[in-house]
Amino acid sequence: MARRKFVCGNWKMFKTASEADQLVRDLRSRLSSGQVQVAVAPPFTALAAARAALTGSPIQLFAQNCHWEKQGAFTGEISAPMLKELGCDGVILGHSERRQLFFETDEMVGRKVRAALEAGLHPIVCCGETLQEREGNKTWEVVSRQLRGALDASTAQQVTIAYEPVWAIGTGKVATTAQAQEVHAQIRGLLRELGGAAAADSVRVQYGGSVKPDNAAELLAQPDIDGALVGGASLKADDFARIIAGAR
Ligand code: PEP
Questions:
Q1: Which of 15, 127, 159, 230 has a CB 3.0–4.6 Å from the CB of 234, allowing a cystine?
Q2: Among candidates 248, 142, 240, 232, which has minimal Cα distance to 187?
Q3: CATH 3.20.20.70 holds for 6-247
């Protein structure tokens, strides 16, 4: 079954609201509406400006995190219904920076996935091994534990997965197409086990980790790579547009 490619730009903690407005305008001027689903994920403070600048565009708006509760005494946190009301289409969850720097566990990611779906947001669920784990032949043990911890039979059918080897994020080191395809195929097998044929056939599995204009087309041509989660290169409209062109 042909899955529509999905490319999302994770802006991390870059871009003020006015800078986000400019980047969205630059991106819109470079993209023709096409077969590829495109999303941008600015920081919370730039979501409203990006939403306004995206008016009338098919480019979707994603947040980079949310809390699992709808509301409450959680200073500094943002809930899924808050993001929904702001006009977000989805949310990135369980990014390795959240896991490593903010101690998010698989169980927390699972609670966030359920909260996002309940609020009507599409989750991109991130997974991936560290260099030490890869060198210790623990890649699949880690990735499968992360996904089993975050997904169940019902939620497995309703998400996008981003496989992001931690050693490839922001380092300029890209997984080889063979390394990425191998894990993507294993993820597809796990999706079948968790959510049945519907999940295995329809859930997109993005690759993330130093995706650039010059390597995107080759990665995205792999049978189980259905798109990309792009960090650094999504901050430049030209580079991001060229990556999207490579996904076609
Ligand atoms: C990311 O943070 O999700 C990412 C893939 O970053 P980069 O593209 O910069 O490696």
A1: 230
A2: 142
A3: yes
